[in-house]
Amino acid sequence: MGQKTNPIGNRLGIIRGWDSNWFGGNKFAEKVVEDEQIRRYLLARIEKGAITRIVIERDLKSVIVTIHTSRPGIIIGKGGAEVDKIREELKKLTQKVEYKTLPNKKGEPVRQRVTTQQEVVINIHEVRDPDLSATYVAETIAKQIEARINYRKAIKMAVQNTMRNEKGKRGAEGIKIRISGRLNGADMAREEEFKDGRSPLHTFRADIDYAVGEALTVYGKLGIKVWICRGEIYERVDFSAQNANEKGGEGNKGGGERRNQQGGGERGGNDRREGGDRRERRDDRQGGNNNNRGGGNNRGGGNNNNNKRR
Known about the structure:
Layout: H1 7-10, E1 20-21, H2 28-45, E2 51-58, E3 62-69, H3 72-76, H4 81-94, E4 96-103, E5 109-116, E6 119-126, H5 134-146, H6 151-163, E7 174-181, E8 190-197, E9 206-217, E10 220-232, H7 241-247, H8 255-262, H9 264-286, H10 295-300, H11 305-309
Parallel strand pairs: 1-2, 3-6
Antiparallel strand pairs: 2-3, 4-5, 7-8, 7-10, 9-10
């Protein structure tokens, strides 16, 4: 089950909240399409902004768009000029055009075109460690492949950056990257997978980020899938949009420490060491010749008790 479904959708309502927060009512389909248009437009408009996530909320008369990015300066621009341009462009994108029958100056009913604009609010949230975001990792690998860098080198660099554990920065607990297509321009398409650490897809409390990227090369498109395990979440999660904006992209900070306190990996290692001590004690009791294990002693006939009886 965990291998088949989308890891983000599989954890909605358990440890992860929704990227769109609003009540649709009768216009649910229109709002879903509009959200998709906003996301596509922002990703194309701010191509070098390193956007990792876009959260959209709606009130009665306003649309609140929160952009999670590792480069907020590119989106804000000089003196906030770029944000103002994007806000005006989103207002045009979200405006509604309706035809209503209204009375004219003479009081006669006439079909007229009415446009209603919604207020657009843009919030920018800085992602301090973008290497823990699957979207950023997939986009970075795709850009390097498009720049004619060897795909193995690009993926191994991404794995090292994600799994690093520097001072003050915690790396991921695991990463899995799968790339498929005409790798290195081969005539037959194939698929390769690179893993490091752990990525338990069946564990719902595991905070796993997932993203799909595409690299447009001369010899065709290459598909890139990235899974990043950022730890395990044991506490209760608040699914409100405000909480999602505060946490977005950074992952759980205490998951690995909690698991180590419970003794997951250390317990298995101690058991193996104790097992070795038991074997040594058993050998000491049986004496120096070790009749049970020594193949040469058993077959030789000189020291074996069974040969003496015969």
